[in-house]
């Protein structure tokens, strides 16, 4: 920690260095102390994460204090507002700044004496320019140096209420209650005039009493102008300030700056007795506890530039000049703390690496995960890490003993009695991991082409269609080709982004299905779906298969790679505003159409294809047939493995290839260059 400021003081530190006449009573001021509401720190966190980031800026603040025997300046989340419009408030306002350091080291090593000098010179500039006269809320200035530990919710801070070390002020006589001087009528006039002042003028103003006892309340600027130009004999002027002091004969710290401002702009008053009303109480009590101080200046040379020194660092509860700290981690709701901590890591990306990253659109996306197996678990965990708050699982399977080691959302307890559905367990575990998540599990089987058992399963078709329509992103993570067909077709119908991840033993495919091109006049073509490169319809892949053919047999790391890529592809894609082309550029880099990887030689390629007009899943003819004769269409798909090929014309296309004429090559067309055996 840097050395403590030599000029820091709560009273006039130079008392022992400056002689004072024996009959004079040195005026001492009660210092202000800071009082911060926890919501102040939450606002500090928000601004540091989302606005200031790595910038160490002097951010304007507003502090609040009262004249009810309470020598504290309070701060809350509203302190960061630039304006205060509540004219009915009984609080007075003060304007200052906060400086939030990036590291605890920079907080410790910065020169506190130089910093206080910087604060004081800023205040002096406002005094010299007259800005503080126009806006008296500048007079009780403050600055706060802070460091925020955003991970642990620990905050280090040190307030300074800068003021001038001189001149010396003395009491001309013993302070008295104002009611010994003012009549009840004058108190009423004081309250009336006070209420007519704007809130930023109420902390410091002037009062003029005529020979007849009439009382006029005026702003500080009006008061100074009045006495500079006044030739009227018999009028008595009083400086008035809202006094937070709870000491009978010691005014509060704000008076120190007010006196300096008045004497700076009105040199003639330096030899006069200053009548000062310390406003105490509230309008409802007609300020009946107010005190009257008669003050004179003991020395004047302090107004010279080279003689100006500053004081004002706040002491801690033990009376020592040092920073304070507050630990809010224990007082925070654990759920809220988890949410803030998750958001912290994401928002830090915006500080340097990806300032244009739109995290809000990621968090608000509703994600539907079809298949809660190895890929589904991996995708869900990565979505959580990106701050996604809405996840729905679809699966009809139950957790088995082989699952927990490969599928990260399941535990051994889920396997007992084989009675726990994957979709339900996955949703429950997500909420355990992150209580703020909105996760739901839907137990249902996906109707599939070539599976005659699905012929009457139209209810699940409708449910799946509704789920796809209600979500923004569809992840197709099932373990068979035919189970991906219906979600692909329905995603096309509702124009939803679908991302498929498919695994081989040592290879993977991650592909984003094409969506409608926003502007067809550009000539852009819609990208293909998972089925666009196929010329055969999906069939029953589970019939007459051995165990190794029924299970997804793959190297364990392949699913983690594919699942992570699927989520990264989704996050990159939704950063795009309108460009849906392959390899479009977002703030996170390119957004490929598909990613194919091969673990055997650790290579990866990003090919792309346009949509196929005869695709058995996303073509117009398939969508229209579903819309026009839904039940008949589904019955045909479930019972006739060739229906989709016949519908889209793939059957005819294949027949054309098979029936192509075989061209025979005439011997005369071959160059006479010897016999084959000779050429060999």
Write a brief structural summary:
With 680 residues, the protein is of the alpha/beta class. It is built from 21 helices and 26 strands. Helix content is 31%, strand content 20%.
Q: Could you walk me through the main structural features you see in this protein, from its secondary elements to its overall organization?
A:
With 680 residues, the chain is of the alpha/beta class. Helices cover 31% and strands 20% of the residues. It contains 21 helices and 26 strands. The strands form 5 sheets. Strands 1, 8, 9, 10, 11, 12, 13 and 14 form an 8-stranded mixed beta sheet that branches. The radius of gyration is 39 Å and the shape is elongated. Mean pLDDT is 87; it is low at 1-19, 546-550, 661-665 and 670-680.
Q: C-alpha Rg, in Å?
A: 39 Å
Give the terminus-to-terminus CA distance. 90 Å
Describe the biggest sheet? Answer: 8 strands, mixed
Number of strands: 26
Helix count, DSSP H or I runs of 4 or more residues: 21
> Residue share in helices?
25-40%
Descriptors:
26 strands; 680 residues; disordered C terminus; eight-stranded mixed sheet; 21 helices; alpha/beta
Write the layout of secondary structure elements.
Blueprint: E1 25-26, E2 33-36, H1 38-52, E3 58-65, E4 72-75, E5 92-101, H2 104-109, H3 112-129, H4 131-134, E6 142-149, E7 154-164, E8 169-171, E9 176-177, H5 184-196, E10 204-209, E11 215-219, H6 220-229, E12 236-242, H7 254-265, E13 274-279, E14 291-297, E15 310-313, E16 324-327, H8 334-348, H9 359-364, E17 366-370, H10 374-385, E18 390-395, H11 412-415, H12 422-433, E19 438-443, H13 458-470, E20 473-476, H14 485-493, E21 497-503, E22 507-512, H15 547-550, H16 556-573, E23 584-586, E24 589-591, E25 594-598, E26 603-605, H17 620-628, H18 630-639, H19 643-648, H20 650-658, H21 676-679
Parallel strand pairs: 2-4, 5-6, 12-13, 17-18, 17-20, 18-19, 20-21
Antiparallel strand pairs: 1-8, 3-5, 6-7, 7-15, 7-16, 8-14, 9-14, 10-11, 10-12, 13-14, 21-22, 22-25, 23-24, 25-26
């Amino acid at each position: 920690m840097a050395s403590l400021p030599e000029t820091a003081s709560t009273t006039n530190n130079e008392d022992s260095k400056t002689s004072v006449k024996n009959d004079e009573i040195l005026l001492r001021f009660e210092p202000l102390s800071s009082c911060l509401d926890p919501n102040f720190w939450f606002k500090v966190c928000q601004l540091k994460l989302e606005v200031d980031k790595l910038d160490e800026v002097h951010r304007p603040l507003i502090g609040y204090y009262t004249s009810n025997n309470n020598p504290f300046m309070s701060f809350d989340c509203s302190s960061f507002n630039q304006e205060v419009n509540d004219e009915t408030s009984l609080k007075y306002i003060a304007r200052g700044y906060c400086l939030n350091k990036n590291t605890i080291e920079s907080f410790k090593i910065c020169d506190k004496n130089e910093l206080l000098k910087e604060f004081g010179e800023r205040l002096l500039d406002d005094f010299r320019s007259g800005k503080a006269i126009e806006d008296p809320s500048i007079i009780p200035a403050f600055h706060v140096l802070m460091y925020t530990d955003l991970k642990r919710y620990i905050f280090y801070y040190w307030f300074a209420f800068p003021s001038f070390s001189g001149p010396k002020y003395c009491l001309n006589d013993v302070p008295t209650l104002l009611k010994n001087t003012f009549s009840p009528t004058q108190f009423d006039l004081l309250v009336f005039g006070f209420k007519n002042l704007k809130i930023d003028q109420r902390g410091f103003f002037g009062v003029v009493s005529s020979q007849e006892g009439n009382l006029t309340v005026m702003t500080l600027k009006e008061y100074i102008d009045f006495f500079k130009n006044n030739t009227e004999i018999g009028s008595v002027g009083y400086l008035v300030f809202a006094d937070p002091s709870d000491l009978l004969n010691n005014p509060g710290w704000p008076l120190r700056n007010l006196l300096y401002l008045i004497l700076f702009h009105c040199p003639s008053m330096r030899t006069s007795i200053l009548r000062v009303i310390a406003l105490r109480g509230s309008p409802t009590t007609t300020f009946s506890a107010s005190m009257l101080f008669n003050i004179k200046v003991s020395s004047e040379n302090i107004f010279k530039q080279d003689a100006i020194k500053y004081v004002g660092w706040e002491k801690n509860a033990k009376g020592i000049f040092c920073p304070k700290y507050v630990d809010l981690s224990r007082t925070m709701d654990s759920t809220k703390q988890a949410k803030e901590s998750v958001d912290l890591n994401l928002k830090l990306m915006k500080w340097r690496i990806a300032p244009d990253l739109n995290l809000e659109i990621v968090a608000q996306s509703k994600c539907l995960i079809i298949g809660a197996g190895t890929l589904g678990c991996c995708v869900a965990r990565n979505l959580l890490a990106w701050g996604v708050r809405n996840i729905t699982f679809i699966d009809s399977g139950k957790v088995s003993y082989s699952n927990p080691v490969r599928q990260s959302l399941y535990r051994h307890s889920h396997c007992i009695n084989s009675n726990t559905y994957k979709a339900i367990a996955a949703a429950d575990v997500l909420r355990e991991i992150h209580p703020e998540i909105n996760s739901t599990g839907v137990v249902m089987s996906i109707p599939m082409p070539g599976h005659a058992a699905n012929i009457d399963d139209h209810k699940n078709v409708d449910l799946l269609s509704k789920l796809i329509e209600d979500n923004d992103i569809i992840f197709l993570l099932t373990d068979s080709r035919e189970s991906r067909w219906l979600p692909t077709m329905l995603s096309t119908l509702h124009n939803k982004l679908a991302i498929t991840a498919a695994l081989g033993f040592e290879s993977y495919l991650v592909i984003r299905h094409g969506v409608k091109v926003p502007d067809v006049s550009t000539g852009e073509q819609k990208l293909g779906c998972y089925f666009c490169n196929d010329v055969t319809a999906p069939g029953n892949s589970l019939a007459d298969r051995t165990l190794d053919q029924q299970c997804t047999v793959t190297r364990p790391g392949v699913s983690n790679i594919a699942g992570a890529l699927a989520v990264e592809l989704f996050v990159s894609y939704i950063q795009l505003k309108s460009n849906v082309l392959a390899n479009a550029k977002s703030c996170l880099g390119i957004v490929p159409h598909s990613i194919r990887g091969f673990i055997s030689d650790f290579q990866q390629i990003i090919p792309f294809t346009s949509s196929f007009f005869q695709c058995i899943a996303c073509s117009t003819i398939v969508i229209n047939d579903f819309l026009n004769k839904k039940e008949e269409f589904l019955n045909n798909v479930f019972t006739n493995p060739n229906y989709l090929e016949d519908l889209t014309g793939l059957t005819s296309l294949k027949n054309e290839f098979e029936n192509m004429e075989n061209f025979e090559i005439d011997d005369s067309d071959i160059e006479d260059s010897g016999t084959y055996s000779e050429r060999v």
